[in-house]
C-alpha cells in the first residue's frame, strides 16, 4: 500500500503539535523520513503565524495554525470577518478554522490594510496555509 | 467582580436551576436555554452548573473589575469587548476595566454571559438561580440594575480565544419556514378532551408568542383551541414545558419560572430537549408543535447530551494541543 500524501500531511501535523522534530518509519521495501523545519516553528507564535512574503514587498501573510475547514464568515453572519481594502488591527479575527465543533480564530499578526483574503470558505487548510495578505502600517511590525 | 453599566429588561443570574425543592412548591428557575449556559461553561472549563447572566434585551453593558475569561453563548448578539468585535458562541479574555457591550440581537431571545469561574452570588435552596416569583436567589432575588456589582470567583489563568458551533446548527431541525420554530411535544392529560378537529387545529396552527410572555410562561396567540366541554380541574402538579389551555383557548407554555401547580387543562408538554428552542424564540416569533413519542423525547435528550459531550472533548483537545506546544 503506497503512502498517501494526506497521510504525510497528517503525520506532519502530529509532529507539529507534539513538538517532535523528526520521525522515521521503515517497513520492508519502503521508508519515510519527516524532518520538521524547526526554525520556522521557533519564529511562529503559538496562536498565530506570520511571514513576510518574498519579492521584497512588505506584506504579511496571515496563516492558519490548525488543520480544518476555513470559514470567512461566522455561519450566523452574512458578512465575512474582513474584506479587501479594510483597515485591520493586530489581533483582529480574519476568519475561522472549523475543527469538529470548534471554531479556532485566525488572527491578524499586524495592523494594516487587508489586501486579499486568499482562502475560500469551505477550503481545507492546514498548519501554515495562507489565509490572507495584509499590508502592514508603515512603522509597525508583526506582533510575533 | 463585574459592574453592570447598562441593562434593560429582566436580566438575571441563572445556573441550571433549583431541582430539589419542587415538592415544597418552589419552581426550578434556571437558564431558559440550558444548552447555551452549559456550552459557555464548557468553553471556560467550568462546572456546567456555574451561574452566568441571562440577558434577554439589548443594549447591555458591563465592566470587568479584573482580568478574567468570559464566554458569550445563546442568542446571536453584536458584542464588543474593549471595542473589539467578538463572534457568537465565543470565549475571550477581558482586562480589568474593559467594557463588554452588547448591542443588537439579530437571532434568538437570550444571550448568556459566563465567566471563567462563576458569578458568585449566594446559594439559596441549592441554586444560584434568580427566582423572580419568590424574590430570592441570584442578586437579591431581583433583575439586575445599572450599578449592580456581581462578585465572581475566577481564576486569572489566560486562555486563548475560541468559538464553538452553536447548538442551533449542530442540533438543527427541519423548519416549516424561516420565522417559525418547531418544538416537539408529547400529548398531555387532557388531550382527549379536545375533539379531533380542535386537536388538528392545535397541530396545524402557527402560534405567535405575545408580548405577555416571559420566564414564567409564554402566552400564545392563534385560533381558539377549546375542549368539547369546559374543564375545571383542581390545581395539580405541572412542570416547565406544559402547555395549558385557559378558557379563552389561547395556549400558555409554562417556562422556567412556572408555578409548580395549576388547574388549566393540559393539551401537551414541550419535551425537555426542545425547551431551549422555545426559550430562544423571541417575542413576536412563531412556534409550531410537532407530536412526538416518549421514546423519541428521550432520544432527543441523548442527542443534546452527545452534542455537549463532543463540545467537552473538543475543547479539552485544544487545551492539550496548546499545552504540547
Helices and strands, with pairings:
The complex is a heterodimer of chains A (144) and B (325).
Chain A: H1 5-18, E1 22-27, E2 30-35, H2 38-43, E3 49-52, E4 60-63, E5 68-71, E6 87-88, E7 93-99, E8 102-107, E9 112-117, E10 124-125, E11 130-136
Antiparallel strand pairs in A: 1-2, 3-4, 4-11, 5-7, 5-10, 6-9, 7-8, 9-11
Chain B: E1 2-6, E2 12-14, H1 34-43, E3 52-55, E4 60-64, E5 68-76, E6 79-81, E7 84-86, E8 90-94, E9 99-102, E10 107-115, E11 118-119, E12 149-150, E13 152-153, E14 162-164, H2 167-170, E15 180-187, H3 196-204, E16 207-209, E17 217-221, E18 236-237, E19 242-244, E20 252-254, E21 261-262, E22 266-270, H4 272-279, E23 286-291, H5 294-324
Parallel strand pairs in B: 15-23
Antiparallel strand pairs in B: 1-4, 1-12, 2-3, 3-10, 4-9, 5-8, 5-10, 6-7, 6-9, 8-14, 11-13, 15-22, 16-17, 16-23, 17-20, 18-21, 19-20, 19-22
Question: What would you note in describing this structure?
Answer:
The complex is a heterodimer of chains A (144) and B (325). Chain A is mainly beta and 144 residues long. Chain A has 2 domains: 5-38, no CATH class; 46-136, RNA polymerase II/Efflux pump adaptor protein, barrel-sandwich hybrid domain (OB fold (Dihydrolipoamide Acetyltransferase, E2P)). Chain A contains 2 helices and 11 strands; from the N terminus they run αββαβββββββββ. Chain A is elongated, with a radius of gyration of 17 Å. Chain B has 2 domains: 2-167, no CATH class; 180-292, Cyclophilin, CATH 2.40.100. In chain B, 19% of the residues lie in helices and 30% in strands. Chain B contains 5 helices and 23 strands. Chain B has helices at 34-43, 167-170, 196-204, 272-279, 294-324, and strands at residues 2-6, 12-14, 52-55, 60-64, 68-76, 79-81, 84-86, 90-94, 99-102, 107-115, 118-119, 149-150, 152-153, 162-164, 180-187, 207-209, 217-221, 236-237, 242-244, 252-254, 261-262, 266-270, 286-291. In chain B, the strands form 5 sheets. In chain B, strands 15-22-19-20-17-16-23 form a 7-stranded mixed barrel. A 6-stranded antiparallel sheet of chain B has the order 7-6-9-4-1-12, with no helix packed on it. A 6-stranded antiparallel sheet of chain B has the order 2-3-10-5-8-14, covered by helices on one side. Chain B is globular. The two termini of chain B are 32 Å apart. The A-B interface holds A 17-19, 46-47, 66, 74-77, 89, 91-93, 96, 98-105, 107 and B 76, 84-85, 87-90, 106-107, 160-166, 169-170, 307, 310-311, 314-315, 318, 321-322, 324-325.
Amino acid at each position: 500500500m503506497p503512502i498517501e500524501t494526506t497521510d504525510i500531511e497528517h503525520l506532519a501535523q502530529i509532529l507539529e503539535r507534539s513538538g517532535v522534530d523528526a520521525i522515521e518509519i521503515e517497513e520492508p521495501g519502503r521508508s519515510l523520513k519527516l524532518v520538521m523545519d524547526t526554525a520556522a516553528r521557533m519564529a511562529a507564535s503559538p496562536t498565530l503565524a506570520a511571514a513576510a512574503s518574498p519579492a521584497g514587498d512588505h506584506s504579511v501573510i496571515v496563516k492558519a495554525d490548525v488543520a480544518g475547514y476555513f470559514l470567512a464568515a461566522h455561519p450566523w453572519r452574512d458578512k465575512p470577518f474582513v474584506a479587501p481594502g479594510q483597515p485591520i488591527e493586530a489581533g483582529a479575527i480574519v476568519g475561522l478554522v472549523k475543527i469538529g465543533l470548534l471554531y479556532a480564530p485566525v488572527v491578524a499578526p499586524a495592523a494594516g490594510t487587508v489586501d486579499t483574503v486568499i482562502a475560500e470558505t469551505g477550503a481545507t487548510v492546514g498548519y501554515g496555509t495562507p489565509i490572507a495578505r495584509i499590508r502592514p502600517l508603515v512603522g509597525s511590525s508583526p506582533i510575533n | 467582580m463585574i459592574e453592570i453599566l447598562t441593562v434593560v429588561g429582566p436580566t438575571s443570574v441563572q445556573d441550571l436551576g433549583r431541582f430539589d425543592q419542587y415538592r415544597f412548591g418552589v419552581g426550578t428557575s434556571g437558564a431558559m436555554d440550558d444548552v447555551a449556559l452549559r456550552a459557555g461553561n464548557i468553553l471556560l472549563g467550568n462546572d456546567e452548573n456555574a451561574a452566568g447572566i441571562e440577558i434577554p434585551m439589548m443594549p447591555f453593558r458591563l465592566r470587568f473589575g479584573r482580568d478574567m475569561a468570559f464566554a458569550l453563548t445563546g442568542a446571536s448578539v453584536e458584542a464588543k469587548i474593549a471595542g473589539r468585535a467578538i463572534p457568537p458562541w465565543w470565549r475571550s479574555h477581558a482586562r480589568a476595566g474593559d467594557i463588554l457591550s452588547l448591542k443588537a440581537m439579530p437571532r434568538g431571545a437570550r444571550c448568556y454571559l459566563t465567566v471563567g469561574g462563576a458569578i458568585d452570588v449566594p446559594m439559596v435552596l441549592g441554586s444560584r438561580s434568580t427566582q423572580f416569583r419568590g424574590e430570592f436567589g441570584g442578586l437579591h432575588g431581583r433583575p439586575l440594575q445599572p450599578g449592580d456589582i456581581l462578585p465572581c470567583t475566577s481564576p486569572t489563568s489566560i486562555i486563548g480565544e475560541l468559538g464553538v458551533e452553536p447548538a442551533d446548527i449542530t442540533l438543527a431541525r427541519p423548519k416549516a419556514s424561516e420565522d417559525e420554530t418547531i418544538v416537539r411535544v408529547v400529548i398531555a392529560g387532557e388531550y382527549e378532551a379536545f375533539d379531533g378537529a380542535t386537536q388538528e387545529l392545535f397541530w396545524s396552527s402557527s402560534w405567535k408568542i405575545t408580548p405577555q410572555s416571559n420566564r414564567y410562561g409564554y402566552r400564545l396567540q392563534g385560533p381558539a383551541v377549546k375542549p368539547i366541554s369546559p374543564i375545571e380541574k383542581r390545581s395539580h402538579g405541572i412542570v416547565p414545558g406544559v402547555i395549558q389551555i385557559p378558557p379563552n383557548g389561547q395556549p400558555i407554555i409554562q417556562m422556567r419560572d412556572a408555578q409548580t401547580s395549576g388547574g388549566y387543562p393540559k393539551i401537551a408538554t414541550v419535551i425537555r430537549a426542545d425547551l431551549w428552542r422555545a426559550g430562544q424564540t423571541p417575542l413576536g416569533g412563531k412556534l409550531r408543535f410537532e407530536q412526538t413519542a416518549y421514546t423519541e423525547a428521550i432520544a432527543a435528550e441523548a442527542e443534546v447530551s452527545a452534542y455537549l459531550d463532543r463540545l467537552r472533548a473538543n475543547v479539552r483537545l485544544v487545551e492539550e494541543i496548546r499545552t504540547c506546544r
